[in-house]
Amino acid sequence: MHWRGTIHECSDAPAWNPAVVFLPSVSGPAGSLQSGSTAGIPPAFFFSSGFGNLCRAHQFGRKTGSTILIASFVEHGSSMQYRAVTTSVEGFVQQIACCYLRHGYWFYVEGRVPEGKRAESIDQKLIAKYGIDVSESTRARRKKAGRANLQYIRHESTFVILATKGEHRFFEEEANLIRDIRRVPIRYAGYSISYKPGGRNKDGSNDDRWHAHVEMDRDQFLELRAWFSERALRDSTDRLAMAFCALPIAPYAPVRRQMLMMLREVNRIRKMAGKKQLPYEILPLRRRVVKPFGDVSSKLRN
Q1: What are all long-range contacts of 124-133, with beta carbons under 8 Å and residues at least 24 apart?
Q2: Are 64 and 6 in contact (CB under 8 A)?
């Protein structure tokens, strides 16, 4: 069973039966953390056995005597919900590529919600079946014990279960369907998501580390390149520039390289016909960071 801690500060213990911790109070600026020989110990230390780092204590104002810190706990799941349903294709891809892959979730099973079935019921069934909705401390313990951790994510009717290496019933029950993203990429909505070594650093040197690799799916790329090549002489520079800017795909680094390849092809065709070249500035090379399970953020990422 997992718990979440909430810190309250008051002068008297309430009528209900919480866990109460007494720490000597030390004079200090408002909002400062407890300090001193005893108060300097993070309050989370007192709850570390079985609860993890759950509490952070603050002392408000200058006080003397003792400060009573009341930590009330509620069962995990009663007020915390595992987030699995993304609201956009961009969020689905971003969560897998930027969050899960770098933490070792390389083994996956991809599926679709059957027609006539409620997607929410499928979510709940799979999350419960494989024990996916657990705390970070439980994940850490599983990893240390050589057991696998799992994540579940869905966009519309497509879902993916991802797992780290280790022991888990998932590898037995889904043995015929499991793929390694380092060898077989996830293809969805025109994207190809994989995990690869190599590339180059900003200084041009080779990078031997492994990275998430998000590019246009090959069929999508070939179709777009053919379309732009066909329109290279028929459309004006303004219309072509608008078409490049409106490409419905997030410009991850491999996608940016594919965009540059398409632009070079367009400029090659236009140069042979003596037409004006398109500048590289027309390409949408900055990716917006989205909230996978919520609204789109206004932040931009290089």
Answers
A1: 126/152, 126/159, 126/161, 127/82, 127/84, 127/152, 130/161, 130/168, 130/169, 130/170, 132/82, 132/161, 133/77, 133/82
A2: no
Per-residue pLDDT of the chain (302 residues; tens, 9 = 90+): 443 443 333 333 333 333 333 333 333 444 333 333 333 434 333 333 333 333 333 333 333 343 333 233 333 433 358 999 999 999 999 999 999 999 999 999 999 999 999 999 999 999 999 999 999 999 999 999 999 999 999 999 999 999 999 999 999 999 999 999 999 999 999 999 999 987 667 777 777 788 999 999 999 999 999 999 999 999 999 999 999 999 989 999 999 999 999 999 999 999 999 999 999 999 999 999 999 998 544 343 43
Is residue 193 within 8 Å of residue 220, measured between CB atoms? no
Both tokens of 285, joined, read: 């090379």
| Nearest C-alpha neighbor of 37 from the set 49, 26, 48, 53 | 26
Which residues lie across from 21 on neighbouring strands? 69
Cα–Cα distance for residue pair 224/230, rounded to 1 Å: 10
Distance CA 185, CA 195 (A): 8
